[in-house]
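Pasting as-is:
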Amino acid sequence: MYKITVGVDGMACNMCESHVNDAVRKAFAVKSVKSDHKAKRTVIISETPIAEEAIRSAIGATGYTVTSFSSAPYEKQGLFARLFG
């Protein structure tokens, strides 16, 4: 799995977060996506890597601006992940 952290400028409220989350879910098969307008960040968990340009395009289409992008291998944390992962 991959954890993709995207800086997003222009989000001002919870509805903005929802718009970004919906755009990501619609464009890609992701395990989870969570945006935080205060931190100006969206975190995506995906089974497969997603190209930076594809993310920029999907989020950019909503009117928000991607300011940064990072992707790294992701491993679930916690007790149940260790027991059943």
